[in-house]
Amino acid sequence: MKEYPDSPTVELIKYFLDNYKDKDKDKDINAKIWKKVGN
């Protein structure tokens, strides 16, 4: 994360780490991941 701070993957990891305990955010996290990978 330090080596590539602007990577889209880093953005997803930071979002996940901030919100992984919130069960209501699960769908949002999954949507963000699939949007980034293109499916």
Outline the secondary-structure elements.
Elements: H1 8-19, H2 26-37
Helix pairs in contact: 1-2
Order of helices and strands: HH
Strand runs, count: 0
- The residue ranges in which pLDDT falls below 50 over 5 or more consecutive positions are none
Radius of gyration: 11 Å
First and last CA, distance: 24 Å
**Classification by helices and strands:** mainly alpha
Counting H and I runs of at least 4 residues, what is the number of helices?
Answer: 2
User: Which sheet architecture does the biggest sheet show?
Assistant: none
Shape: flat
* Mean of all residue-level pLDDT scores: 78
How many domains? The number is 1
Helix coverage percent: 55-70%
* Fraction in beta strands: under 5%
How would you characterize this protein structure?
- With 39 residues, the chain is mainly α.
- It has one domain (8-37).
- The chain has two helices and no strands.
- Helix 1 packs antiparallel against helix 2.
- The longest helix is centred in the middle third of the chain and has 12 residues, at 8-19.
- The mean pLDDT is 78.
